[in-house]
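[Solved] Which block belongs to which protein?

Original post:
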Amino acid sequence: MKKFVLLCLVAVVLASCTSTNHGELVGVRKKSKPFYQPDPYGMVFVPMGSYTMGVGGQDITSSNVATAKTISVSSFYMDETEITNNEYREFVYYVRDSIARRLLGEVNQDYLITENTKTGEVYDEPHLNWKEKIDWNSDEQDIRDALEEMFIPKEERFFGRKEIDARKLLFEYFWIDLHAAAKKEFNQGADYHNASFADRPQGMTDRSVYVIRESINVYPDTLAWIHDYSYSFNDPLTERYFWHQAYDNYPVVGVNWNQARAFCVWRTNKIRDYNLSQKNASIPAEFRLPTEAEWEWAARGGNHLNPYPWGGPYTRSDRGCLLANFKPLRGNYISDGGSTTVIVGHYKPNDWGLYDMAGNVAEWTSSAYDPVSYNITWDMNPAYVYNAKADDSPIMKRKVVRGGSWKDIAHYLQVSTRTYEYQDTAKCYIGFRCVQSYLGRMKDDDPRKMSKVY
């Protein structure tokens, strides 16, 4: 008994010696490595700042939809160029291969992983085995039969050619409607947009009502070149633009707002899955479309009150060279170096290091369009958002489009010009780029990025 008491006293003494907080409040100390946010590949850092949103150019259309307002924006990362055909093609390939692996898993278990080989944990749903290659031309009948569902039916094939059925390329994902969860009212029988978990009737305790599941066809509308310009010979672009390697580094077009948002979700999952596989605790913020305010702040490049991203009032340099890909003069499309789209990064970047913030292709933002949204949003990170459903009226499906494109006049290239397109519509002159919120300090506390205020 004496030995037991002695051991307890020794343990207490040792515990008091190893404690360094002396009973003071010091917070929870994590054993993992300190968090830092590395620069995402292909993105540039845009520092926080304040600016007057909606001024700097002439409202030649007298639309009065860009009321001047001073706002502040937090720091974020943005893709230095628009998403290219080659980058978006990786998304399409992922969806194609994941569907094929599910089909093959029904006849060959090698394409599925049912348990964790290290821990012995059995998965509720089998994971796809990405190490197992897909033999699209396999001699095995059961493999061919399983993959046949991926191809266009024989009676619909042109010239007997075997092609992947783009209608089958559905990407399933979910997102959490935080705006619905933040609302305080609840109407019996109402949809999730009016539901609040805290104020539900008794017995409703499942938060899954806020988990919205989506299924989006990810294949871009390659016929956009024809249906946007019915009386123009754009057939070669329709046949080659998205798939031909000559257009790998051209901005992807024919992608609607829903597809662009699905791409952001896939890109987020891609890097998170990699970090988890490497046991990396530094899980980055999600990729998303920029808000309208973020886009304009990034496009200005720190140059306040200037109409264009390059910081000047003119569309030509001092040498007379056009500074973007658009429709100059009365329609001399080729005078800027390209008749339609051109390779990304062809023109000089703005002062943040962002390319093509004016011209080439216009860009989707996450913001819903309303002519008076400037007057009702907050002046700190303003965002006017509405997640329109399929049966909503068309006016609720309008999303802000910024930057102008290869077919627009100079007015639409101005950083303050706003226009819109419907979220379920794809155009041959609209693309997108992603942003990522800035979470904390850089690894080395770079003073260029942390201390400078604009």
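(Second protein starts here: sequence line, then its structure tokens.)
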Amino acid sequence: MEGMSTRQLKVARELQRDLAEIIRSKGMAVFCGSMVTVSEVRISPDLAVAKVYVSIFPSAKAEDVMKILEENKKTYRGELGRKVASQLRIVPELDFYLDSTLDYAEHIEELLKK
């Protein structure tokens, strides 16, 4: 997280919490029965764009889930807006990215089983 200002870090942490809550509230069924975790949020210096990193379990469903997140971006942004209205002048644009560290962990586990 180097290079982010204290304000950015604070906002990023807040967004991570709020988005995790929004995604959790949808229920796993919406995401093809997958568990979606917001692993990190990075926000641009002007606080206009949030890169949202999510890990998806099982990883086989990652592609489908990323599509669902992408298609519902506006909805999540709207809900986020209601949560952060008091702290932020602008609600950041959301860009979803797949955090593949979970895949890596799954892969290592597979290798260890052999």
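Accepted answer:
You had them paired correctly. Confirming on the second one: The helical segments are 6-26, 62-71, 73-84, 101-113.
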